[in-house]
Write a structure and sequence with these properties.
Blueprint (H helix, E strand, L loop, with lengths): L9 H12 L29 E3 L6 E8 L7 E7 L4 E13 L2 E7 L14 E9 L2 E10 L2 E10 L2 E5 L16 E9 L2 E9 L5 E10 L19 E2 L12 E9 L2 E9 L5 E9 L2 E8 L5 E16 L3 E12 L5 E11 L2 E4 L3 E2 L10 E9 L3 E10 L2 E10 L2 E4 L15 E10 L2 E9 L5 E7 L7
Antiparallel strand pairs: 1-29, 2-3, 3-4, 4-5, 6-7, 7-8, 8-9, 10-11, 11-12, 12-13, 14-15, 15-16, 16-17, 18-19, 19-20, 20-21, 20-22, 23-24, 24-25, 25-26, 27-28, 28-29
Length: 457
């Protein structure tokens, strides 16, 4: 199924999107009574220094995604193994805290039948539509093929292989190559994004419904509505060079609408940020997201997005990523803001995010999480004179400040290579960020940083 024809109903879809995003169904997004007893900073989001997680029996481990439900415990996903083979990894928070160190229960879900040992076997994103209904996505090797991986479980454990995802009709045959990179859930269902190789072995963006029902858009083109577990191609905005790559790497859903972000290759063979809106069962409003002023126009990538609704102000979404600046031709962290209010929806001018004072080169933001009324935090990585360190940005009114908790890097990071890959917050005092650090054997090791109680719970 191809979604290129869905833009013909743009006006109807735009009206539907605004009705869904502005419906106010996030009014109950505040953390309920009985939420985790964590230390918070009023009006700000803060993290304890990152700590390393040692996976039993594994020489290396990475954490790529995290989800923190309201009033519940966080779930982190990634991979663990050795230099020749890895398996999916799930960590489920148990709620015990001592000086910022969270207690996690470790799980290694079984791979689907026919899976092949590979360092590519991994989970990279996780979300829950309910405490007993969670989905983690990634990729798994089966023979010469790389296929989308879905694992299902609860926010307390019980993870196992999930349903099989069907690929778009124009996927490559020998070899098949596809993966899922992001998932977001609402109470009625979950939407996953990723990429696949087409028949020309070029990467293309795709999306798939993992569960639930999302309704149908008015005047939707025949065959354009997403069906459960059948992935579809999401075409890039007009102006993309025919046959070249597109990727969707971040998604945030409110009510029955979602905003997806990623990148595509334009007609000049340059990489640009892109966004797409999912509403009424189809994608529409495929747009280029402009880079900040001073961009070299070479490469812009959006990797994460978080949306929130504020009564009287509409819906605001923040996307994280990087662009190549013309001043030094280095990757530079950026944030882009999408606003839907009244009858309008627009991407506002993107903004550069300045590196910390010890930054000596490139940097990028990998993930962002926002809470009503507008508290946001983003994480990533940046170069320093001694290697690389993790980025943590905590928003204050009308500007971003670079805040790097000390010491964010674990003592084991003798190589000085650290990156935070994902952050999620259910409240200002209920956040978790995950990533990896390189140890003295040049192996990645999982790290996590939380906002938690300063004494045992």
């Amino acid at each position: 199924m191809d979604l290129r024809g869905t833009q013909t109903s743009r006006a109807n879809l735009r009206a539907l999107l605004l009705a869904l995003l502005l419906s106010g169904l996030l009014a109950a997004a505040a953390s309920p009574a009985g939420a985790l007893p964590r230390r918070g900073v009023p009006g700000a989001i803060g993290l304890y220094p990152a700590v390393q997680w040692h996976v039993q029996g594994a020489q290396q481990a990475e954490l790529e995604g995290v989800y923190c439900p309201h009033g519940g415990y966080c779930v982190a996903v990634g991979s663990a193994g050795n230099a020749n083979s890895t398996v999916p990894l799930v960590l489920v928070e148990t709620g015990a805290f001592y000086h910022g160190m969270a207690s996690w229960a470790e799980s290694e879900p079984k791979l689907p039948p026919g899976s092949t040992p590979s360092t590519g076997n991994a989970l990279v994103s996780v979300a829950c539509r309910a405490p007993q209904s969670c989905f983690a996505v990634g990729q798994v090797k089966q023979g010469s093929e790389m296929l989308p991986l879905v694992e299902t479980g609860r926010d307390t454990g019980g993870w196992k292989p999930g349903p099989t995802v069907g690929l778009p009709a124009n996927h490559s045959v020998a070899p098949v190559h596809a993966s899922l990179t992001a998932v977001s859930c609402i109470s009625s269902g979950c939407l996953a994004l990723g990429s696949y190789w087409d028949s020309n072995e070029e990467p293309q963006a795709m999306a798939v419904l993992l569960s639930g029902s999302w309704g149908t858009a008015v005047n939707a083109a025949p065959g354009s509505v997403l069906r459960l577990l059948d992935a579809v191609e999401v075409a890039p905005p007009r102006g993309a060079e025919a046959g070249t790559g597109a990727n969707l790497t971040g998604v945030s859903c409110l009510s029955s609408a979602c905003l997806a972000v990623g990148d595509y290759t334009n007609a000049h063979d340059n990489q640009e940020g892109m966004s797409a809106i999912f509403a009424g069962g189809i994608f529409s409003s495929l747009e280029t997201v402009p880079a900040p002023a001073g961009s070299a126009g070479i490469s812009t990538t959006l990797s994460g997005v978080s949306c929130l609704f504020n009564a009287g102000h509409g819906t605001t979404c923040l996307a994280s990523g990087y662009y190549v600046a013309s001043s030094n031709e280095l990757a530079t962290p950026m944030m882009a803001t999408f606003v839907a209010s009244g009858t309008t929806e627009t991407w506002q001018p993107s903004a550069q995010v300045a590196l910390p004072s010890n930054g000596s080169g490139s940097g990028q933001l990998n993930s962002v999480s926002c809470l009503p009324p507008g508290d946001c935090a983003a994480v990533g990585t940046y170069q320093t004179p001694s290697g690389s360190d993790a980025l943590f940005y905590d928003e204050v009114p009308n500007r971003w400040l670079s805040v790097v908790p000390e010491p964010l890097s674990p003592q084991q990071a003798v190589t000085g290579a650290v990156s935070l890959e994902s952050i999620d917050c259910a409240a200002t005092d209920n956040c978790a960020a995950v990533g990896e650090v390189t140890d003295n054997g040049a192996r990645p090791q999982a790290i996590e940083a939380v906002s938690g109680a300063s004494t045992p719970s």
